[in-house]
Amino acid sequence: MFSFFRKKPAPTSAPPAAPAPATAAPTAPPAAKTGGLIGSALVAPMEVPVAPAVAPERQSWLNRLSDGLRKTGSSISLVFTGATIDDALYEELEAALLMADTGVAATEFLLNEVKRKVQASGATRPVQAKNILVDALTQLLKPLEKPLVIGERQPTVIMVAGVNGAGKTTSIGKLTRHLADGGASVLLAAADTFRAAAREQLAVWADRNRVEIVSQEGGDPAAVSFDAVTAGRARGKNVVIVDTAGRLPTQLHLMEELRKIKRVVTKAEATAPHEVLLVIDGNTGQNALQQVKAFDEALGLTGLVVTKLDGTAKGGVLAAIAQEKPIPVYFIGVGEKLEDLETFNAREFALALLA
């Protein structure tokens, strides 16, 4: 699935006879939930397939993803340029995976899977072992592949956290564009009152995406969040996105502020927040995994947005997350443009990494 938003087809529409573009009704068996809109009225979440699309725009994204992951993948792919599969190849593969910040546990899993399947299949050529690694990596990453569900609640309240520099506010801007393009009305909450100019930065994104924003100069972050959720419900918005202050998980007083924001959001809407997302920088490798663990303990994360995968040698961190803390990855990013943030697909990522 490559769109977490889908319009409900008219009741009289006949099912398509051939694979349809990304915006058409699916013909494959259902596999994942998402919500949809007809005009401004929410419809029930629908079942949509998770099979990769073949639309030209998706292929363009895959090309950018492959280019972005080249620094990580090339060191791993070099392992398979020899003539035979032997102990030396496995040693080089183990070292390459660890250097890519795949982590000890995930590296051990992948190495054992490759060895087992090579032996079972009787493979003798390194290219065969590489294809087996692609399958093993896909298997490992599959639990991270889950769509963001919009439409079950109105408004759907999304709380976004992350350390300074991870690309949190920019990712919110890109996510807002995705949602708006899908037909959702979005309200932004500028609850990042800790960082200078954060409110102004979010206001720029609100203006670019032509959505409303709730902010207060020097206001209390929890109060801003409460006002935004209340306003979102009163104005009939489909989504409220709460931008919180960037902080390190070691800043205990600031982490407590995040907990307070979550509690206050719940006071404004009993079932909210419906999503708690963490934006992590793919360049930080194993440190990103530690962030996931710390923020999940504090907030109960429901999903991740992984940014800045372009040019990093540490793209293997997604395998480490899948092995040690398998929280869904809703989006990954490989650049600064709006189209450089896309939904995560395990098979696509594995193929792009080892292209």
UniProtKB/TrEMBL annotation:
Residues 328-341 form the SRP54-type proteins GTP-binding domain. It is an enzyme of class 3 (hydrolase). Pfam families: SRP54 (PF00448), SRP54_N (PF02881). Its main location: membrane. GTP binds at residues 162-169, 243-247, 307-310. Coiled coil: none annotated. GO terms for biological process: SRP-dependent cotranslational protein targeting to membrane. Its EC number is 3.6.5.4. GO terms for cellular component: cytoplasm; plasma membrane. This is Signal recognition particle receptor FtsY. It comes from Caenimonas sedimenti.
